[in-house]
Design a protein that fits this description.
With about 160 residues, this protein is mainly α. Helix content is about 55%, strand content about 0%. The radius of gyration is 15 Å and the shape is globular.
Length: about 160
């Protein structure tokens, strides 16, 4: 189902780059305090990492392609996850923590936006988990996903 031309991107609906940056800040603040996830970031989550992930999420949610243009796109993100051996428990904690961070960052709470957010979290974390396994054979090249509203665009009375 094609989205209407006047339908905002998920990034626009969220509040643009500042809102995505708040999401990522809140998420990594939670990660640093989480026993199950903080081991992926010995010494804490760097400013650079937070900024790069903000660019990724902004691009995925329909913003500018800055992650692809300046940081290497899919191949770069894939390289960060290779060999991590993400467990099912860590994957679920990641997704849950990001959902909580969306509340912390005061992102829109409407069901349509949150369904799109959770849809991407489920898809992305399952892919990251699979690609992080020692025997993984991920696609070497792919575009950065451009996530949309799916079947439920934002409700506007």
């Amino acid at each position: 189902m094609a989205e209407a031309e006047d339908t905002p991107t998920l990034a626009e609906w969220a509040g643009g780059a500042p809102a995505i940056a708040r999401l990522i800040e809140a998420f990594y603040d939670r990660v640093e305090a989480d026993e199950l996830l903080r081991g992926f970031f010995p010494g804490g989550v760097s400013r650079e990492h937070r900024d790069h992930v903000s660019l990724w999420w902004l691009e995925v949610f329909g913003g500018p392609a800055d992650y692809t243009d300046t940081l290497g796109g899919y191949e770069r993100m894939l390289a960060h996850h290779r060999g991590l051996g993400i467990t099912a428990e860590q994957r679920l904690r990641f997704a849950t923590t990001m959902s909580q961070a969306a509340d912390d960052a005061e992102l829109p709470a409407d069901p349509e936006f949150r369904a799109a957010l959770i849809g991407y979290l489920e898809w992305g974390t399952r892919l990251a988990m699979a690609n992080s396994q020692p025997d993984a054979e991920p696609a070497p090249h792919a575009p950065v996903p451009r996530w949309g509203w799916g079947v439920a665009p934002p409700y506007r009375p």
